[in-house]
Amino acid sequence: MSTQDDLWGLEEKFWLGGGETFHSTMADGAIIVFAYPAGILQGDSAKKGVSAQPKWRSVVMADRTVNLKGDVAVLAYRAEAERPDAPILRALCASTYVKDDGGWRLMSHQQTPV
Fold first, then answer.
1. Taking phi first (over 0 means left), then psi (-120 to 50 degrees means alpha), and beta for anything else, what does residue 32 get?
2. CB 46 within 8 Å of CB 35
3. Burial of 36 (0-12, 13-18, 19+ CB in 10 A)
4. Of 53, 51, 49, 59, the residue nearest 91 (C-alpha)
5. If we measure between CA atoms, which residue out of 96, 98, 78 comes closest to residue 88?
6. How far apart are CA 77 and CA 93, in angstroms?
7. Mind listing the pLDDT tens digit for each residue in 13-33?
8. Which residues pair with 4 in a beta bridge?
9. 39-94: per-residue pLDDT in tens?
10. CB under 8 Å to 37, separation ≥6 — which residues?
């Protein structure tokens, strides 16, 4: 698998894995930006905020774009995600990863509903 395949696989795990994935692969102090009312979350508050939400049942990521420079990668895409008893989320998303201790860690994630 290529580095880009690894990163897209990790991004999908963040959507479908819930809080467990965030706890194991988020960088210290990572920043997450969600729509109101969640807003801007950082570090432990980001982990708690994600863990409090029900897991996503599915996600489709389209219009994928990657910028990979050394130990930093930015992924941007259009997402359609669904979870039980909630409307489908349609959003433009961007995630930044940094390579740390031989693995990729999420430094930031941002969602803009469309």
1. beta
2. no
3. exposed
4. 59
5. 78
6. 5
7. 999 987 778 778 889 999 999
8. none
9. 898 988 887 877 777 889 999 999 999 999 999 999 999 999 999 888 999 999 99
10. none
> Locate tokens 């389209």: which residue?
62
Cα separation, 2 vs 104, whole angstroms: 13
Those residues whose C-beta lies under 8 Å from the C-beta of residue 55, and which sit 6 or more positions away, are 16, 17, 18, 83
Q: Using alpha carbons, list the distances in angstroms from residue 62 to 78, 93, 109.
A: 5, 10, 16
The Cα 79–Cα 27 span in angstroms is 22
Residue 65, judged by CB atoms within 10 A of its CB (0-12, 13-18, 19+), counts as: exposed
Establish how many alpha carbons lie within 13 A of residue 48's alpha carbon, considering only the half-sphere containing its beta carbon. Answer: 7
